Amino acid sequence: MVIYMRSLVSPLSRSIVTNFMSFRKMTASVKTDSVKSLFYKEYGEPVDVLHVTTQSINQPENNQVSVKWLLAPVNPADINTIQGKYPSKPPLPAIPGNEGVGEIIAIGSNVKYLNIGDRVIPNGTHLGTWRTHANYTVEELLKVPKEVGVVEASMLNVNPCTAYRMLKDFVKLKPGDTVIQNGGNSAVGQMIIQLCKIWNYKSVSVIRDRPNIEELKNYLTSLGADEILTEDEIRKTQIFKTKKLPSPKLALNCICGQNALEVLRHLAHGGIMVTYGGMSREPLTVPTSALIFKDITLKGFWMTAWTKVNMNSKEREKMFSELGALFKDKRLKAPPHKLVPFCQYQEAVINALHTDGRTGVKYILDMTKL
């Protein structure tokens, strides 16, 4: 019956129908004259160089979709990029933001695997998520299940992936092995604690002392940490000598300086320290004896570089699938966070820039509150 009816439609009529269907496929409630974004024309402190601009966007073309950004985290790397200090920089002028979650509100005529209403995250760097709407090609986005919370989805790209890769790629860990880390209360640190618990590894986390230290220790313990030690306690601890826990085979370092040295001293013979940050802005100093007599190996990790090499790999697909399932099942939870309305973006960039690591709050721009 369908074939018969189509045979009666003239080529002109089919063209009209096709165009009408394409028009319906692409239309959505995009207010093209009220698309707002943060942008900067020169490098500098975010509060000085960031400005709000209003522009319009076109309906998406063949292989494009229109995305309404919902949430966009403010990461230290975003701040460093705006300052011009980060190794990976977009051409200027630029719209900042490497992470976020958005909803597709319009699609081009040739889009097959994404639909209006799907939630998506960036599939690449420098896509500019600190704006309300934008058009992207389908290759620049990844679909995430709606069962994953919107906050968790917004920060899926960086911290969980960094923790996942460092636990997977440097040491062949088996259940019962110990991982030691500093920056245990950071967003990555909290992901490491949770993944270690899920995969049956023991985790030891080093944190800086503070007035509410017991409250923080209790919180990290609730995430699954086996031991939480202050910088003073890590110098004196006997947990490895007494065999309470096996000596760690893997150390994860985002602090450097004296803190990292104290962590390094507890590594087992042949252990590996992976450095992925330098929050103390001090160099990583390694005793000669650690290299000669303990055969310690030092490595570095940068999630951006890994992503560029593995953009379309099955391993990356597997990682997102596994992390998405863990968030969906509530086995992974987001770190403490604060949603900041887009119109108050200064609060987020100032606090993210000047945080001393004690607040433990991740700032996220709410792009729906203008």
Automatic annotation (TrEMBL):
InterPro entries: ADH-like_C, ADH-like_N, ER, GroES-like_sf, Mito_Enoyl-ACP_Reductase, NAD(P)-bd_dom_sf. Belongs to the zinc-containing alcohol dehydrogenase family. Quinone oxidoreductase subfamily. Transmembrane segments: none annotated. The keyword Zinc does not apply. CDD domains: ETR (cd08290). One of its GO terms (molecular function) is enoyl-[acyl-carrier-protein] reductase (NADPH) activity. One of its GO terms (biological process) is fatty acid biosynthetic process. GO terms for cellular component: mitochondrion. Keywords: Fatty acid biosynthesis, Fatty acid metabolism, Lipid biosynthesis, Lipid metabolism, Mitochondrion, NADP, Oxidoreductase, Transit peptide. Signal peptide: none annotated. It holds the Pfam family ADH_zinc_N. It comes from the Eukaryota. Residues 45-361 form the Enoyl reductase (ER) domain. It catalyses: a 2,3-saturated acyl-[ACP] + NADP(+) = a (2E)-enoyl-[ACP] + NADPH + H(+). SUPFAM superfamilies: GroES-like, NAD(P)-binding Rossmann-fold domains. Its EC number is 1.3.1.104. This is Enoyl-[acyl-carrier-protein] reductase, mitochondrial. It is found in: Mitochondrion. The keyword NADP applies.
